[in-house]
Write a structure and sequence with these properties.
Blueprint: H1 20-38, E1 52-55, E2 58-61, E3 92-94, E4 102-104, E5 113-118, H2 123-139, E6 145-150, H3 157-166, E7 173-175, H4 180-185, E8 193-197, E9 203-208, H5 213-225
């Protein structure tokens, strides 16, 4: 007869296993620590002075990451600001049509002066020019001078001359072949740019971008009168 073994379901007193309670506590502690790292509970607070905010009684320390600069990468330089000095810089540049004629800012000492930086390919410059011409014609007797500055270093001389002839401009224009007057002396950052210089040689106002007829008329009148220009 084959022997068969059946499970013993009789009630027996189980042995006490003393290691179970500590093991369970260690498992719970490990899980708690792991969850803390995953949720950022264990972030070290910043040094004293770090900004803190309170939300529902919990103090949150705001951390700021600081990364060392990579010397192989070029450093960021902010764009230049127009006219860093109060006094208008002097210059000596040739006339757009006659290189023998050299025009200087000091030639116009004692007279209000508008420097207008432009290029032949600049559409806003083209739209603005007729109003500048009208202001020049209307205020010549009051001493107003309008002097155009062609950005020749990024323009074409022939195109610039055609531009002046097409619009029948009668005020003088000079050529900035190297771009030094624009980039270094007057820090021009966009076209058109108009710089209003008082009779005393001080920069009264810098207008970056196209002006309306009303602005040109108002600014010219204020410049002639020696009044502050209010955009």
């Amino acid at each position: 007869m084959k022997r068969m073994y059946w499970p013993d379901y009789s009630l027996r007193q189980k042995r006490k296993r003393a290691w179970r309670a500590p093991a369970l506590l260690l498992t719970l502690a490990a899980a708690f620590v792991a969850a803390g790292f995953m949720n950022g509970w264990w972030q070290l607070p910043q040094a004293s002075g770090a900004p803190q905010t309170e939300s529902n009684g919990i103090v949150i320390v705001e951390t700021v990451a600081v990364f060392p600069l990579d010397p192989s990468q070029p450093t960021y330089e902010p764009p230049p600001t127009p006219i860093p000095v109060k006094n208008a810089a002097d210059f000596a540049l040739p006339d757009l049509f006659d290189e023998i004629i050299i025009r200087r800012r000091s030639d116009y000492d004692g007279r209000p002066l508008i420097l207008n930086f432009w290029a032949s390919w600049c559409a806003p410059c083209r739209e603005e020019m007729p109003a500048l011409q009208r202001a020049y014609e209307a205020n010549q007797e009051d001493g107003l001078v309008v002097l155009g500055v062609n950005e020749t270093y990024m323009d074409d001389v022939a195109a610039a001359r055609d531009f002046v002839n097409e619009l029948a401009l009668t005020f003088p224009n000079i050529r900035d072949d190297a771009g030094d007057m624009s980039s270094q002396l007057y820090r021009v950052i966009g076209l058109p740019t108009s710089i209003f210089i008082s009779a005393e040689g001080e920069v009264a106002h810098v207008q970056v971008g196209q002006m309306s007829d009303e602005q040109i008329e108002t600014f010219s009148r204020q410049l002639i009168a020696g009044e502050p220009i209010t955009p």
